[in-house]
Amino acid sequence: MKLEPTRTLKAGSSLVQQFTVSGVPVPSVTWSLNGQPLDATAVSSTAELTSLSVKKCSVKNAGQYEVIATNEVGTDTVRFTVVVNGLYSLIHAHSHICYWPTGPKIVCFGT
């Protein structure tokens, strides 16, 4: 499955995004929204999977998400944008395309 650089959601809907993560040694994974670290309650990670789950999106969940996997060999980054349409506002951040350097690898799957 190809990661869509921009996802548009209705306010109140769920946002779930999962990625497989691989590398030797096992990479550490961090998530951010608009450059700020995400609340640990919305993110879960294991040695091979990292996921974001927001049950009821609002415009505060809109913007650019970044997932970074890092180990001593290198870093891999995935960026995607979430637009949340609410009753009174629409927030849209510029989207960025994923890139895949050597070292850790992040792969999108699921919906």
Shape-level CATH architecture: Sandwich
- According to CATH, what is the class? Mainly Beta
Shape: elongated
Full CATH superfamily name: Immunoglobulins
How many individual helices?
A: 0
How many strands in all?
A: 10
List low-confidence stretches.
Answer: 88-104
Helix content: under 10%
Largest sheet: 6 strands, mixed
Structural class: mainly beta
How would you state the average pLDDT, rounded? 78
Number of domains: 1
Model description:
- The protein is mainly beta.
- It has a single domain, classed as Immunoglobulin-like.
- Helix content is 0%, strand content 52%.
- The chain has strands at 6-10, 15-22, 28-33, 36-37, 43-45, 49-54, 63-71, 74-85, 90-91, 105-109.
- The strands form two sheets. Strands 1, 3, 4, 7, 8 and 9 form a six-stranded mixed β-sheet that branches.
- Strand 7 (63-71) and strand 8 (74-85) form a beta hairpin.
- The termini are close together.
- The model is unreliable at 88-104 (pLDDT under 50).
Give a summary of the structure in a few sentences.
This protein has 111 residues and is mainly β. 0% of the residues lie in helices and 52% in strands. Strands 1, 3, 4, 7, 8 and 9 form a six-stranded mixed β-sheet that branches.
Which key phrases capture this entry?
Immunoglobulin-like, 111 residues, 4-stranded antiparallel sheet, mainly beta, 6-stranded mixed sheet, single chain
